[in-house]
Structures are given as structure tokens and as C-alpha cells.
């Protein structure tokens, strides 16, 4: 979703997650001339529906729409994953069910349970028997590279890192979304804007937030998350992409934290013009 704050900018929501895979099961692959699907079974997990009007498909080929999530309630059970590659772009979809009915949905519209804050960054990640620490600097640098690549292609000037915004707003927001994944507080106030005002910064600010599973590869988690922001955002009216490309913004702060198998990312864009 995206909301305007005085100009064509504002917070946009993107949630990305995955299921715990069942060990020992062999993934399957289907392909057509334009679509390739890589399936993987998983243990059954209950998820909360984040977007009621999200499109539900009858299969992972995404050719037939069954309707939206309004008819499935607030909780669904996921039991299959599919990495779907169409026209060179890959996205993750989940198969879910409620009773005897179900379908396939883009992973960003489901959230696994509630989570509490733990110390980020220094928490080790186990990968193939080895302990790997999460490197926030590497992940955030890759996000900046991807942002500016797309801005240049679109004719917008590259953004520069705003360290003040990072210290006073964005790094705080990254820790906050671990336990409350939202742009808004309980009074429906835009949190980033409130923090900026409190710290004496420009309230002309936009925000993207996301979380994505982390397997120890910092560049990959940044690439996959950005792919969701930029290429799979139609249901949010391309709000994330608009924030990334907004020519009125010339500064950015990016913060990413690791928690319990996921990387939580926040991008805040602002302008030195203060408009």
C-alpha cells in the first residue's frame, strides 16, 4: 500500500517471508516456454493474511485468478512453495488452504506469527554447519547500489546517504518493524515522519519496509528483497518503486537488521530541499 504525504511520495509496504522447508524432500520443477516453476514442500505453518484484496491464483502458473483473500479469513495454512520465473523475473509464491479451499498467493501478503525483538547483527546464522554473522554494511551497500542503478535508468539523479537520517530515524525503524511490522503507530500516525520531526529533521520523508529469509548470503538477500520492492509491487500500486525512483528525493538512509532467520529492511527517502 502507498499513501501520499503532501507530494507523490509516502510509505509503501512490502513483506516477504518464507516457510521452514521439510528436510529430505526433493523439489520439483515445471516449465513452459515463458514460465519456470520450482516447487518445494514445507511443514504446515499458520500465517496471518496481511492484504485482504490480494489476488489468489488456482495454480503456480498464475494464469487463472480465483478471487482475493477476503473469502479465506485472517489465518491460512501454508504447505507448498513455488519460485516462479516469468519473463526473466523470479518471485516466491505460497500454496495455502483453509479447510477444503485454497490457492496460491504472493509470499509478501502472509506473515508468520508474532515476533519479539532480539539483538540484531551479531546473532550468528548457521549455514552448512558454519556460523556466519550478518554484515549489515554489505547488505545496505548493495541496496544503495540497486537503488541508484534503477534511478539512473529512469532518468533520476542518484541519491546520497544521509547519515543523520540513518542515525535518528532509519536504524530505529529497522528495530521497530521486527516486533511491529507497520508504517503506523497505534494512533495511525506515520512513525518515520514523527521521528523526523522530533529529531529536527525534514518531515518530507517516504518509507519502504520489508523482511526476507536470510541464508548467510548478504548480496542475495538484498537482491531478492529489492526485486520484490521493484518488480512485484502491482498490488501496492507500485508505491515502493515510486519511492525508489522519486526525482524529488536526493537523500536516502538504509538500515537492515537480522532477527530469527530474517533480514528486516527499512529505506527512508528525503530531500535536502525540505519540501
Automatic annotation (TrEMBL):
Keywords carried by this UniProt record: Signal
Metal-binding keyword on record: no
The organism's place on the tree of life at top rank: Bacteria
Signal peptide: 1-33
Coiled coil: none
InterPro entries found in the cross-reference section: CAP_dom, CAP_sf
Residue stretches making up the SCP domain: 144-267
Annotated protein name in UniProt: CAP domain-containing protein
Source taxonomy: Bacteria, Bacillati, Bacillota, Bacilli, Lactobacillales
